[in-house]
Amino acid sequence: MSRALSAPAKVLLSNSRNLSDAAAFLQSDMSTFGKWCIPGLLPKQGTAAIYGPTGSGKTFFAVHLALSKAAGLPWFGPRMEAGTVVYLVTEDRLGVEARAVAAAKHMGLKLEDTAFEFLTPFAIHVEDWANSLIEVLSEIQIRNGEPIAIVFLDTLGAAFGGRSQDDAAQMTLVADAMQAIAEHFKCVFVVVHHSGKNAAKGMRGSQVLKDRVDAVIELSKTKGDMMRIEVEKQRNGAPGAPLTCRLSYAKVSVGGGRVESTRIVTEVAIAATSPMIARAPAKPVKLARDEKAVFDAMNATPVPLTVRNFDLLTRAALIAAKPRKDGAVRTAISHTKKQLLSKKIIEIDEQADIVRICQKTSELENS
């Protein structure tokens, strides 16, 4: 005979799942675990933060990601699944809209066919903020005919409404709201945030934000108009390799026959080197046929490989390059791996279980 349960207990019991059910759920279409919204950067479902110092290009890069997802453009591999992107703008809305329009035209997008919308939200600590936003986002989703894929909040600091970002309790409320929206739409909620006064210590405000979000992406300015993008945290899945991009000028019509300049992100690429490897010499590095086959296969993979997956990829690439017996394949795998490491084409981070490319394609040549 079952016991009578209180209403709260029934709610808790409703999400109970045994190991067999958990395994079945992981393999179902309902599970988002291990799936990407933007490969290597943003999980399909969860929360994330993009941060950097003032002038590092945070909004430019966030807008570029937003447009790429809304249009379903390729991201270091096949085309992504398109979805509705909502950009919550808490400061300089006209500037953000101008950058997005200019970037969309530069990317060759049809503005009327791209499911990208701007919205100015209430201060994030207003009562029932998450539920009110869920209602509005649901209407936007219906209007666009595409599921919500990403919600950006730019910037988190301006959304705080005068509250202290150093207050752990206040930041916990923010993290809860972000998670509630991500869970409702099975999307990713991304805040654009600033570095602290001491940039070496990471994001501004309470540590709660970094602890709670699933992904943290750091932006920094390098030489000239170049930016560097690095994944500082990725809760589930291998983090994407460091990226670089350029801030370029573009024109945007503002009415009255006038044209103004704004800046957009261009030339997004995998970084030439990782922090673990010294910059390659100017003289091109020669690659043998097998090394080139593995290098090309790695370039076609959007995220860094685990050591095991790298071995499997190497085996497949070598067999495709030249049919050979099992013994010869094993020898070729070992030799090719040693050569790629010795030439500093790849690096292996044993602690993180990641294999990365560390060389510009332009600095390589076939032998």
Using brief descriptors, characterize the structure shown:
367 residues, alpha/beta, Rossmann fold, Arc Repressor Mutant, subunit A, nine-stranded mixed β-sheet, two-stranded antiparallel sheet, 11 helices, 15 strands, disordered C terminus
CATH class membership of the largest domain: Alpha Beta
CATH-scheme architecture of the largest domain: 3-Layer(aba) Sandwich
Distance between the termini: 77 Å
Structural class: alpha/beta
Please give the structural blueprint.
Blueprint (H helix, E strand, L loop, with lengths): L6 H7 L5 H8 L9 E3 L3 E2 L2 E7 L5 H14 L12 E6 L3 H14 L9 E4 L9 H16 L3 E7 L1 H4 L8 H18 L2 E7 L13 H5 L2 E7 L4 E9 L8 E13 L2 E13 L14 E3 L1 H11 L7 H15 L4 H17 L3 E4 L4 E4 L6 E3 L1
Parallel strand pairs: 3-7, 3-8, 4-5, 4-6, 6-7, 12-15
Antiparallel strand pairs: 1-2, 8-9, 9-10, 10-11, 13-14
Describe this structure in words.
With 367 residues, the protein is an alpha/beta fold. It folds into 2 domains: 35-270, P-loop containing nucleotide triphosphate hydrolases (Rossmann fold, 3-Layer(aba) Sandwich), CATH 3.40.50.300; 285-366, Arc Repressor Mutant, subunit A (Orthogonal Bundle). Helices cover 35% and strands 25% of the residues. It contains 11 helices and 15 strands. It has helices at residues 7-13, 19-26, 58-71, 93-106, 129-144, 156-159, 168-185, 208-212, 289-299, 307-321, 326-342; strands at 36-38, 42-43, 46-52, 84-89, 116-119, 148-154, 188-194, 215-221, 226-234, 243-255, 258-270, 285-287, 346-349, 354-357, 364-366. The strands form 4 sheets. Strands 5-4-6-7-3-8-9-10-11 form a 9-stranded mixed beta sheet, with helices on both faces. β8 and β9 (226-234) form a beta hairpin. The protein is globular and about 65 Å long. 35% of the residues are buried.
